[in-house]
């Protein structure tokens, strides 16, 4: 196991990802080399309107000519699954003109058009059984207007089966079925014992003809965020190949370092100018904030495409991906499974425990992984044990900002200002002033439940100091015991001991008695000891002691 204390090096930037760089005066005269496809998921539109397209067509050819014609891909939201599905749609329709100059031109010679049935299930969210059935019927109707409808086709599964058979007979070509976000109707009820089985049965019934129609099918592709068990959704279609963790598809969605530096070479220079940074500094900022995803191991580093493209478009680093979806459900699940902030990352687990059906999970790891909040960071090839951790700064800061209101109820806005004040104090090494800001703020926070134990305050400090951009670890092992908290800034290491309803002097005595600083003697930074005592009745810091 790696020594996390010596390996990690979080940026010293505070809790806001938005960097206040000045824009060069002459930027308005600069011509951006390309248009960025923010929210555009249709391949033909990207090509025809000359938007930037990161060439993934080599994967399209590989998928279309692989050993299995039934494929499933899981990736987090806004990672390019819909664009990939749209690219497959255009390819199987034989639209050769759209692929001019792309990698697939070197492999494909026939460009045979096939009938394509493309279902985007993202429009079937937040529905009950009746609304879901109506939505499925509406989707079927658009293709029945092309291929007709049989007299006996009444239920959605009957209509889908009839569509596939008629499309095959009318064209003489195998039918392609593309189902994007297959799990969208189920995400909201994933852990509801009452509604999940009802909606799951509707979807299972809808997909049931796919196996019976095998002679008429050329290719079937499904995407989603979560991995529902094969028995619960595809009870008969048991030959789906899950390509989500195959090394050859590691970069099928997202943007790699190589793709960014080659296909976005000029864009990088423009962005660096807008940020008033060197190209190397710009690359490092992008890596710190948006890189770090791995969906198999080994794997190239994958950048979050939504955040990366928004940064190039706007010319400003910000929390684009995290801000595009409110993680209310995730926060609720963290509370349900009693996961403290410091327990979100650094998870060691086997693949069957994190790449697992989410509707049967007994641990939050599958949800965190499949939703993109943690990702693979290492793997022990001998034991098969994976290390899962937060991918980058955007996710880490976004999660912690979302958790802050749990510890500062009704005062989250003031809490963010308090964090900013603490950051200013710690930038100049003034821990005393930082703790004064915290003490004054906590004294104004209304009563909240679950504050009568030391762990609450440890978690609160973990969230706050992490938002400051500091490296934070808790319960750090030493030869003589565990340190409550270790903080590291760019120029100082703080060894912190917490007490509840005792004294700061008692905390300092424990640091000295167990000689906690000895564990960090080789870190190369000045070590400062901090003893803090919280008052249960006043719900704030009563006193603290700081020693060099």
Structural descriptors:
548 residues, alpha/beta, Rossmann fold, Trna Endonuclease, Chain: A, domain 1, 3 domains, five-stranded parallel beta sheet, five-stranded mixed beta sheet, 23 helices, 40% helix, 16% strand, elongated, disordered N terminus
How would you explain this protein's 3D organization?
It is a single chain. The protein has helices at 4-7, 43-48, 57-64, 81-92, 129-147, 156-171, 184-187, 195-207, 209-212, 230-233, 257-263, 265-275, 279-290, 305-314, 320-323, 328-336, 351-354, 365-370, 393-407, 412-427, 431-442, 454-467, 504-513, and strands at 70-74, 116-120, 175-180, 217-224, 241-242, 255-256, 302-303, 347-350, 375-380, 385-389, 471-478, 481-488, 493-500, 527-535, 540-547. It is an alpha/beta fold and 548 residues long. It folds into three domains: 1-31 and 259-407, no CATH class; 55-249, Rossmann fold (3-Layer(aba) Sandwich); 411-547, Trna Endonuclease, Chain: A, domain 1, CATH 3.40.1350. A five-stranded parallel sheet has the order 2-3-4-1-5. α5 runs parallel beside α8. The longest helix has 19 residues, at 129-147. Residues 1-12 and 18-30 have low confidence and may be disordered.
Please outline the major beta sheet.
5 strands, parallel
Helix proportion range:
40-55%
Fill in the CATH topology of the largest domain. Answer: Rossmann fold
Structural class: alpha/beta
| Termini Cα gap | 31 Å
Count of DSSP E strands?
A: 15
pLDDT averaged over residues: 88
Strand order of the largest sheet: 2-3-4-1-5
Please mark out the parts with pLDDT under 50 across 5 or more consecutive residues, or reply none: 1-12, 18-30
Q: Count up the helices.
A: 23
The CATH class of the largest domain is identified as: Alpha Beta
Task: Count structural domains.
Answer: 3
By CATH, the architecture of the largest domain is named: 3-Layer(aba) Sandwich
């Amino acid at each position: 196991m790696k020594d996390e204390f010596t390996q990690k090096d979080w940026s010293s930037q505070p809790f806001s990802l938005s960097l206040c760089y000045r824009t060069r005066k002459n930027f308005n005269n600069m011509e951006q080399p390309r248009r960025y496809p923010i929210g555009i998921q249709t391949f033909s539109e990207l090509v025809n309107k000359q938007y930037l397209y990161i060439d993934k067509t080599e994967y399209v050819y590989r998928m279309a000519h692989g050993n299995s014609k039934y494929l499933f891909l899981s990736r987090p939201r806004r990672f390019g699954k819909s664009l990939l599905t749209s690219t497959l749609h255009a390819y199987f329709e034989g639209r050769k003109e759209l692929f001019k100059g792309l990698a697939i031109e070197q492999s494909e010679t026939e460009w045979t058009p096939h009938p394509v049935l493309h279902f985007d299930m993202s429009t079937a969210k937040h529905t009950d059984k009746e609304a879901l059935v109506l939505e499925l019927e509406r989707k079927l109707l658009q293709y029945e207007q092309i291929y007709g409808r049989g007299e006996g086709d009444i239920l959605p599964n009957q209509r889908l089966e009839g569509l596939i058979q008629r499309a095959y007979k009318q064209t003489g070509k195998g039918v392609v079925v593309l189902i994007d976000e297959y799990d969208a109707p189920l995400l909201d009820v994933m852990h509801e014992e009452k509604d999940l089985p009802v909606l799951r049965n509707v979807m299972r019934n809808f997909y049931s003809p796919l196996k019976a129609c095998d002679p008429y099918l050329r290719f079937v592709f499904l995407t989603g965020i979560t991995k529902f068990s094969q028995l619960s959704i595809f009870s008969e279609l048991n030959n789906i190949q899950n390509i989500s963790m195959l090394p050859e598809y590691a970069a099928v969605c997202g943007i790699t370092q190589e793709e960014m530096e080659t296909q976005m070479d000029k864009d990088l220079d423009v962005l660096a100018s807008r940020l008033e940074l060197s190209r190397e500094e710009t690359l490092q900022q992008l890596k710190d904030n948006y890189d770090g995803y791995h969906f198999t191991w080994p794997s190239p580093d994958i950048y979050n495409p939504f955040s990366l493209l928004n940064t190039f478009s706007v010319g400003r680093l910000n929390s684009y991906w995290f801000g595009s979806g409110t993680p209310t459900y995730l926060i609720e699940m963290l509370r349900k499974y009693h996961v403290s902030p410091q327990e979100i990352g650094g998870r060691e687990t086997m693949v069957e425990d994190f790449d697992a059906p989410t509707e049967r999970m007994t641990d939050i790891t599958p949800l965190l992984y499949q939703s993109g909040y943690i990702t693979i960071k290492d793997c022990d090839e001998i034991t098969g044990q994976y290390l899962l951790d937060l991918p980058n700064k955007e996710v880490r800061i976004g999660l912690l900002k979302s958790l802050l209101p749990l510890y500062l109820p009704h005062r989250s806005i003031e809490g963010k200002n308090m964090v900013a004040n603490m950051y200013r104090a710690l930038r100049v090494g003034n821990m005393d002033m930082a703790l004064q800001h915290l003490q004054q703020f906590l004294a104004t926070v209304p009563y909240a439940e679950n504050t009568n134990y030391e762990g609450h305050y440890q978690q609160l400090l973990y969230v706050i100091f992490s938002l400051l951009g500091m490296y934070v670890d808790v319960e750090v092992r030493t030869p003589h015991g565990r340190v409550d908290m270790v903080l590291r800034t760019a120029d100082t290491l703080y060894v912190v001991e917490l007490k509840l309803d005792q004294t700061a002097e008692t905390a300092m005595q424990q640091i000295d008695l167990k000689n906690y600083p000895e564990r960090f003697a080789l870190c190369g930074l000045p070590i400062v000891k901090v003893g803090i005592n919280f008052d249960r009745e006043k719900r704030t810091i009563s006193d603290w002691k700081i020693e060099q």
